Amino acid sequence: MDRRNFLKIFGSGVATAATGNLLNPAKTNASEDNQATEFYGILVDTTRCIGCRRCEKACAEANGLPVPDIDELTNKSVLEKMRRTSDTQYTIINRYDTEKGPIYVPKRCMHCNQPGCAAACLVKAMRKRPSGHVTWDANCIGCRLCMVSCPFDIPKFEYTKAMPRIQKCNLCYDRYKKGGIPACVEVCPTQVLVFGTRRQILEEGKRRIAADPDKYVNHIYGEYEVGGTSHLYLSSVPFEQIGFRKDLGTVPYPEYSTGFLFAVPFIFVLWPIAMLGINRATKKDDESGHGENHENKEHEKGKH
Amino acid sequence: MAGEKLDTVAIVEEKDDSPKIKNLSDFWTFLKKELKPRGNIATPFNLISLPIMILGYIFIVYRLAAGLGKPITNLNQDFPWGLWIGFDVVTGVAFAGGAYVLCFVVYILRAEKYHAIIRATVLNGFLAYLFYAGAIVLDIGRWWNIYNPMIGNSFGVNAVMFLVAWHFFLYMLAELVEFSPTIAEWLGMKRLRKILGSLTLGAVVFGICLSTLHQSGLAALMIMAKNKIHPLWYTEFIPILYFVSSIFAGLSMVIFEGSISHKVFGDQIDEAHHKHYDDILVGLARICSVAMFGYFFLKIILLVHEHAVPYLNSPMGYWFLLEIIGFVLVPCFMFAHGAQQRNTSTIKFAAVITMIGIIINRLNYTFIAYNWYVPLSQKYWPAPMELIITASIILTEIWAFRWIVNRMPVLKEPPAWARKLH
C-alpha cells in the first residue's frame, strides 16, 4: 500500500465513521450520481455546420431567452467576430477561417461527466443529473464559484438583475423529461447534431472518423478531456484552430479538490490530540490548581 | 478567555464598581448608558469616517435592490470575483489569522508574555470575521438564500465552499466564546464569567482546527481554476501557501493594530504594560520572520516543482518576483533585523510591507493573475462604489472596535473581582 492509498483509506475511514458516509471526501458532489447510468449527450460534427444559426433561435425560444430576429440570423456579419455564450445566449455559433476554409462551430455547455461547477456548489444548485444533464436550481446562493471552476467558462451570471440567476445550457432538461430532444438538435437542417447516449454518440463519432479518415482529425474532443464530457466534437482541423483549449488535461476537475477534502478529517483528529498534548506538556508543576489551568483541567475532564 | 492579565501587577483592593445586573430592566438601563458616545464627538477621524460610512450604507441598500452589475461593481463574466471576495473576505480572513496564532502561543504553548495582547487580538479577529467575512452577503448574488448551506435539504457536503461556509460560522462562535469572559466582566456577571472562562481552552483547540482548515480552504476554492490562474501562482499546494502566509499576515496585523491602539487608547494601558510591549513586538517579529522565510522557501520549491521558472522572464514574472522578493523576502529580513536590534520602528514598517504583500497575493489569485490572458483593457478593476462600500465596512469595524475597547476590559485591567478568580 503506497502513501497515497493509505491517506485515502485513512481519510475516508475517519470521515465515514464520523458521519455515516455523508462526508466521504472521495465522493465529490459531481461523481455521486454518475456510477451505473448512461448519460445523454450531443455529438457535434463541425464539418457539417453551415452557420445558419437556427439552433441559436430555437434555443432562445425553448428557454425563454431574447430571440434573435431573422434579419440578424441572415446577417452574416454577426459571425465576423468571436462570440461567447452569455446570460441571454445558451448556444452560439462562431466561424473560424482555417486552411480548410471557414468552419462553423456551435458552442455551449459541455455537460462534463464530472462537472467542476457541480463539485464546487455548496447547495447542489448546480447538479449533474443521472441522465447526464447539468442543470441549475433556484436554491443557488449566487457565490459564482461555478464560474471560477468551469474549465470552459460556461456558467454566466445575470449581473444586471436584482434577482440574478446562473444561466447556461441545460441540454433541454424540461423537454427531455417530456420525452423530447434538445431544441437545437431538432431544428438543425444539416444534421450537425446527434442526440443519444454517450456510448451511442461516441460510437457514431468513431464510425465517422474510421469511414472517412481524410476528412476528420483522429480525435473526438470531449472523449477524454476533463475526464470526458457529454458533448463530443468532430473536426476536420486540429481542435486548437477552432477555439478549443488543449491544455485542460484528462483529469476530472473535481478530483483537484479531493486533496484538500482529505485533509479535513486529518486535521480534526490530529490537531486536537497534538494541541491538548502540548498543552499538558507545557504545564508547569507549581501552577497546579492555579487559575485558568485549573479551569482547563476541569474542562478536559468533561471532554474525555 | 481567562482574564488574568499580568501576574506582575500588584492587586490592590479597589472599589467594585461593576454594574449590578439582576434582571432584564437593569440590563437595558446599563446598555442604554453604555451606548451613549463618550468624549468629544467631533474628532477628525469621526468627521472623515462618518460621511464615508453613510454613503457606503446607501450604496449597500442600492446594491441589494439593484443587483451586482454596473455601476455598483465592475464584475463581469470573465471576473466573477473582485474586490469584495479578494480583499474583504480572503484578505480580511488572512489578517484575522493573528487570533488563532496567538491563541496557540498563549493557551497551548503557555507563552505568558503574549497574554497582554490576547484580548485585543481575539476581539479584532472576531470583528474581522463579523464584518469582512460578513461582507460576503453583499457579494452573494442571491443573498436571500444565504441560509441554504445552514438550513435546508440539499447540502453540497463535499464542496470546499460548504466547508468554508460552515467553518466561518463555527469559528465566529469559537471566537465569541474566547472573547466572552471580557463581556461578562463588563456586565459584572461573576458566575457567568467563571463558566465562560472554563470554556476557553476547548474553544481555542476547536478554533485552531477550524482556522487551519478555512485559511487553507480559501485557497482550495481556487483549485479548480487550474487553467485560469497564471502558472507562477497556480499549484496544487496553494492551500498550504495560504495557511503559512496567514500566520505572518495575522501577526503583522496584530503589530499594526497594536501600534495604533497603543497610541489611541494609550491612557487605558498601564506603565508596566507599555514597557513590556516592546518585548512582545520583538517576539512577534521573530515568529513572522521565521514563517516568512519558510513561506519564501516553499514558494521557490514550488516554482521549480511546477516547472514555472521559464515564465519568470515576462511581465507576469516580474510581478511575481516583486511579490515574493519585495513583499516577502525583504520584510522577512526587516523583521529579523528589527528583532535583533530591538528596533520597533523597523518591525512596524516591515509589518505594513507584509500586509501590502498579502493584499497583492490574495488579489492575484482572485483577479490579477486570474484570467491573466484577458487583455488589459478588459481586465476587472474595482468600481468606485465597490471601494466606498469596502471602506465603509472597514470604518464600521473600527467604530465597533473602539466602542468595545472604550467600555470593556480589553486593553485596561479587568475588574479586581475577575483578577481574584485566579
In what range is the share of β-strand residues of chain B? under 5%
The quaternary structure here is heterodimer
Secondary-structure-based class of chain B equals: mainly alpha
**Main β-sheet of chain A, in a few words?**
3 strands, mixed
**Helix and strand string of chain A, N-terminal first?**
HEHHEEHEEHEEHHEHEHH
Query: Tally the helices of chain A: what do you get?
Result: 10
Alpha carbon gyration radius of chain B: 22 Å
Gyration radius of chain A, rounded? 26 Å
Q: What is the CATH class of chain B?
A: Mainly Alpha
List the chains of the largest interface with their residue counts.
A-B, 73 and 70 residues
Write the CATH homologous superfamily of chain B.
Formate dehydrogenase/DMSO reductase domain
Mean residue pLDDT of chain B = 90
Residue share in helices of chain A? 25-40%
CATH architecture of chain B: Up-down Bundle
Task: Provide the number of structural domains of chain B.
Answer: 1
User: Any idea what the shape of chain A is?
Assistant: elongated
**Unreliable residue stretches of chain B:** 1-12
Beta-strand proportion of chain A: 5-15%
Can you describe this structure?
The complex is a heterodimer of chains A (304) and B (422). Chain A has two domains: 1-28 and 257-283, no CATH class; 40-251, Alpha-Beta Plaits. Helix content of chain A is 34%, strand content 13%. Chain A has ten helices and nine strands. Chain A has helices at 3-19, 54-62, 70-74, 116-120, 145-149, 173-177, 183-187, 198-211, 258-281, 291-303, and strands at residues 40-45, 92-98, 101-107, 126-128, 134-136, 156-157, 166-167, 193-197, 231-234. In chain A, the strands form four sheets. A three-stranded mixed sheet of chain A has the order 8-1-9, with helices on one face. A two-stranded antiparallel ribbon of chain A has the order 2-3. A two-stranded antiparallel ribbon of chain A has the order 4-5. In chain A, helix 1 (3-19) packs across helix 9 (258-281). In chain B, 67% of the residues lie in helices and 0% in strands. Mean pLDDT of chain B is 90; it is low at 1-12. Chains A and B meet through helix 4, helix 5, strand 6, helix 9 and helix 10 of A and helix 4, helix 7, helix 8 and helix 9 of B.
